[in-house]
Design goal:
By secondary structure, the protein is an alpha/beta fold. Helices cover about 20% and strands about 15% of the residues.
């Protein structure tokens, strides 16, 4: 599984999921080649909205196995 956060660098610096990759939503279309081709992708943002938007972008680009972390980082209890 590959987890991609669509949050800002400042949000990512405060708290992150282990092994997640920061790809801000505004840069996602230009960085599609960095995503794994044969792994499920979990997209998330701070409260889900950017995660859902990222999932739409990925699906439109032909990525089939995309999921969204409902509630985003706001639902996680992690520290840096």
């Amino acid at each position: 599984m590959f987890s991609s956060t669509s949050r800002t660098p400042a949000e990512y610096d405060k708290v992150r999921l282990p092994h997640s990759t920061l790809i801000p939503l505004g840069k996602l279309r230009g960085r599609l080649d960095e995503l794994p081709k044969h792994k499920p992708i979990v997209a998330f943002g701070q409260i889900s909205l950017r995660g859902y938007e990222a999932a739409l972008i990925l699906k439109a680009a032909g990525v089939e196995n995309v999921r969204v972390l409902d509630g985003g980082m706001a639902m996680c209890r992690l520290r840096k």
